[in-house]
Structure formats: C-alpha cells, structure tokens
Amino acid sequence: MKSVKSVRLLLVVAGLLAAACLSACSSSGQGGGSTTKDGLISIKLGWQKIPTVAPNYLMVEEGEKYGLDIELVEFNRYSDMRVALENGSIDFGTVGPGDVALSADSRKSQLVALAGQATGADLLAKRAGSGPLSWKDLASGSVRFGSFGAGIAWVKTLATLDQHGYDIGEVNEIKIAGTIQDVIQTLKSGGTDVVMNVDPAIAQGVEDGYAEYADELDINSSPLGAQNSLFVANRELLDKPDVISRVLKNYVAQIERLNTEPGLWASVYQRYSGIELPVAQESLKRIRLDLHFSQQELVAFADFLARKGIAQNAQLAATVGDQYDFGPLADVTGKSPEELGRSE
C-alpha cells in the first residue's frame, strides 16, 4: 500500500515524464488558429476513444461548416492531454476537473476550461457474483482494489473514503500499469476484486459475464461531484475570439445532437472504438453529456487536493479561478455564466 505522499511523488514524476515525452514527440507545426490555403482555420483537438469524448470526434466531421480544419490528436489519459495543452502541442481538448486544479497548482497558465463535457463517467467495477460491497469492506484491506493511481477516479475514491471516515492507506490498493483492458483482465483472472475507471472495458466485462458495475460504491456521489470532464483550450487562443467562437459553436452543436438524436451516441461511439453495439449501449447508461460545468465542484476538487497534500499550494482553491472562463460559452449559448455553473 502506498501513502498519499508516495502517490504525490508518483504523480509528479509521471507528469514530468509525460511532459518530456510530449515535448519530444509533438510536431513542430502548430495549429493555433492559423488559416489554411482553403481559408479554413486550422486547429489541433485532443481526444480519446472513450464514450465521453464523442463530441470531439463529431466536431471533425462538421468542421468545415464552422470554417474549421480540425486535426484529431489521440491520447491515452486526460493527464496526457493536459500536458499537451500546457506545452502548446494541441489547441483544444478534454480533461478532468482534477487536471484543471493540478494545472493551477503547477502555476502554469496555459489551460483554460470553457465548457462542461460529461458527468457520471467515473466508475468502479467488481467481479461478477461477488455480492454487495461497502466502503468498510474496501477499507478493511480484505478487498483487492485495482487502480490506475493519481487519476480523477482515484481522487474521487479517496474523497468518498474520506467522507465515510476511511483512508486510502487502509485499502489493499494494487497499482496496475497498462490499458483499461489490462485493468479489467485482473478481474477476469482473479487478481483483483474491484477496479476503477475502466469503461468501456467494464461494459465489455458485463457483456462477457465476468464483471459487474459496483454501483453501491458510487464515487460520483462524493463531495467532489459527478463532473468527469471539461472542454478546455490553450489560453493563448483566448486572444483569437473568432477561433474560440467557431470551435465552441461546433462543440455545442455536437453535444446537442448526441443528447437529442436517439442511438447516435452509441453508433458514433461504436464506430470509433470498434466495440459491439450492445457494449456501447451498456457503457452509456451511466454517463450524461452536459455543457454545464460547476465552479463549486472545481473549487472543491482544488480544496481537497490541497488538504490531502496532493497539491503543493495550500491556497489552491483560491487560485483555481484563473483556470476557467464562462464568458465564451455564455456568448455562444446566450445563457448567463450563472446558468452555466458559475457560483461567485
């Protein structure tokens, strides 16, 4: 079992390695809102082959309608996308609320959240037929808990344990390297009893009969809320309001399409992920796409990270406000910042 301090060190080291890799591997050519020979505005958009990032995928297909030439850049994790946004190798992308807080903690100013993307996507799964589990069971050490470590689901698990009076140091936590398929396979092989944040792999495990959603261990009811992901930009793009406006209009349109056209989300998700339609449909049952993003939850994330020593800045909650801007989305939607989630 690793302490919070050791996980913090792991997070810092992993971040430095990711930054070095992305700096070395990113192309020298920047999108950055430049104009192509066809008169389109060129941007680089980060994404993952997961259900919550379906709007980003559709944005490419609809790009020309908004005068945009969009290049998708694929990542394995939100944290990798955050580093790419910070070093300028992509212009827009998707990260978790914890990434917004950690960006503020690193005192970098290049990331700005512009809109909500999804809620309810942080999930725990258990071996099929294992029966109901409680947070007390998890904290007892008798349950083998497989985790990625240091991600949004890990922080929400930490917060939910804390809410119930337990500490992550009491958990029999097994850090698993590799992909979501590697994580879900530990349930199948019997190496773990519960695992975190592995959709669409959970849905595949449910379909194959060896996994179940651990709905009784609901980390989305933690004090940090159900918010899973935010649509963000490299801050330099705020100096190009026409680019921001075009991108957000496209983004908002795709969120609305996916929320109003029955079956579209599952079929699009199936198309880019390669999974079977029943698995895609199962995977989407607990997730909601939503432009609204809660300032209160962002501040709560920052406060929790600071109180637990995961963040370095003890006053992080007071400074995280520099990492989001409700104005551009308010201009595009006609809604007030308060309607979109601002609470101050």
Topology:
Blueprint lengths: L3 H22 L8 E2 L5 E7 L6 H8 L6 E7 L3 H10 L4 E4 L1 H9 L5 E9 L4 E4 L7 H5 L4 E4 L4 H12 L8 E4 L4 H10 L4 E3 L4 H8 L2 E3 L13 E8 L6 H20 L3 H10 L3 H7 L4 E2 L5 H13 L8 H4 L7 H7 L3 H4 L4
Parallel strand pairs: 2-3, 7-8, 7-9
Antiparallel strand pairs: 1-2, 4-11, 5-11, 5-12, 6-9, 6-10
Helix pairs in contact: 1-3, 2-9, 4-12, 8-11, 9-14, 10-11
Describe the structure concisely.
Helices cover 43% and strands 17% of the residues.
Q: What's the tally of helices?
A: 15
Strand order of the largest sheet: 8-7-9-6-10
Number of DSSP E strands: 12
Mean pLDDT: 88
Shape: globular
- Name the beta content range: 15-25%
Mind describing the biggest β-sheet? 5 strands, mixed
Q: Can you give the helix content as a percent range?
A: 40-55%
Unreliable residue runs: 1-30
Oligomer: single chain
Element pattern in H and E: HEEHEHEHEEHEHEHEHEEHHHEHHHH
What is the straight-line distance between the termini?
A: 40 Å
Q: Compute the gyration radius: what is it?
A: 19 Å
SS-based class: alpha/beta
Describe this structure in words.
With 344 residues, this protein is α/β, with parallel strands linked by helices. 43% of the residues lie in helices and 17% in strands. It contains 15 helices and 12 strands. It has a 5-stranded mixed β-sheet with strand order 8-7-9-6-10. Strands 4-11-5-12 form a 4-stranded antiparallel β-sheet. β1 and β2 (41-47) form a beta hairpin.
